[in-house]
Amino acid sequence: MAAFALASCTQTNQPESATAATESHLQEEGAAAAGQSAVADNESQKNVVQTAVGSPDHTTLVTAVKTAGLVDVLSNAGPFTVFAPTNEAFAKLPKGTVEGLLKEEKRSDLRNILQYHVYVGALNAESFEDGQSLGQVNGGRVTMGVKDGKVTVNGATILASIPTSNGVVHVIDQVLLPQ
User: Fold this and answer.
1) What is the CATH number of the domain that holds 93?
2) Whole-angstrom Cα distance, residue 52 to residue 57?
């Protein structure tokens, strides 16, 4: 998922053209040639995908990103802010939901849900304001909550924030579902 430019920390709207371009780009299926994810670099800071792959708490998310064909897109420069649900968060969904979304015929639904977890720009947890609305890659909006030092997105608690080479990963305790 994704991090965003520090310059957009207080930005709550993103131009429609940027949203459309990013959404279109994030929907691209894997090409015959390897993309950015195939670049071998063991010295640089990890990107959002590499960060998720390295986390034992995000195996379901990684499987979903791979199935949706979004690995190369989220390995690109970004910046992205990604709200990354844990395996426990996925387990809270009704039985069979994850398995159903991983089927070929549900690929567009899976992409829509995953893109709802991504904002174009790098936003650190400290930059969020209570009631702030963010335009997500899928065209939906999420609302940030800040109360007593606790930061939430659509009610999901941000458990940790991890800076990456192409953004920020905010680990959350629920899967965000677009309306």
Assistant:
1) 2.30.180.10
2) 8
The number of angstroms, rounded, from the C-alpha of 160 to the middle of its chain's C-alpha atoms is: 14
DSSP state of 29: P
Q: How many domains is the chain partitioned into structurally?
A: 1
- Torsion on CA atoms 61, 113, 165, 162, rounded to nearest 10: -60
Chunked into runs of 10 residues, the chain (179 residues) has average pLDDT values of 32 41 43 45 74 92 92 89 96 94 94 96 95 96 96 97 94 95
132 CB contacts (<8 Å, ≥6 apart)? 12, 143, 144
Q: What angle do CA 54, 160, 62 make, to 5 degrees?
A: 35
- For residue 103, the enclosing domain spans 6-32+42-172
pLDDT at position 77 is 84
The reply to whether 144 falls in a domain is yes
Tell me the pTM: 0.76
Burial of residue 12 (number of CB atoms within 10 Å: 0-12, 13-18, 19+): middle
